[in-house]
Write a structure and sequence with these properties.
Blueprint (H helix, E strand, L loop, with lengths): L2 H17 L1 H14 L3 H8 L3 H14 L1 H22 L16 E5 L4 H8 L4 H8 L5 E5 H18 L1
Antiparallel strand pairs: 1-2
Helix pairs in contact: 5-7
């Protein structure tokens, strides 16, 4: 089989699996019943963790555009899920004209503490992994800035 034909076959198989998920699962289960030792064989073939990491890193270096595109799509999906979960509008003023102007905000102003506790991640990743907790809200950029200025004024009065 030529490389071009093999690629066409892979594309066809991917589309078929996508369009026939139930049938694919049935065939997969039947194959596993007929081939119970397949997991053992694949475990014997598997590389060490370091070798797997090396291969992934090499693939990512050679496919930089695919990695960047995948990362952008993932970030956009997470952002849209967050916007949907928190109502697609500013909690304070109700602004909903442009989603690009909406920011995720810590209600208790404890973002620094949370990032230290959970490790270095983007706030969107944290909120997505935690399942959209109530300790966050959407604010438009203006309201977010006003909230920041108000917290600074309160801090100055205490000192």
């Amino acid at each position: 089989m030529t490389p071009k034909a093999a690629e066409a076959n892979r594309v066809y198989q991917r589309l078929w699996r996508k369009n026939n998920p139930e049938e694919h699962l049935k065939r997969q289960a039947a194959w596993r019943l007929k081939n119970p030792d397949s997991k053992k064989r694949s475990a014997l073939k598997s590389n060490s963790l370091e070798e797997t990491k090396r291969k992934k890193k090499l693939w990512a270096e050679n496919n930089r555009e695919k990695v960047l595109l995948s990362s952008r799509r993932r970030k956009l999906r997470i952002r849209q899920a967050i916007l949907d979960a928190y109502g697609n509008k500013c909690t304070f003023c109700g602004f909903d004209k442009d989603q690009r102007a909406l920011d995720l905000d810590h209600i208790n102003n404890n973002g620094g503490e949370e990032r230290k506790k959970l490790g270095i991640q983007t706030m969107n990743d944290i909120v997505f992994k935690l399942g959209f907790p109530d300790s966050y809200q959407l604010l438009c950029r203006n309201c977010n800035w006003l909230k920041y200025l108000d917290s600074r004024r309160i801090g100055q009065e205490v000192e």
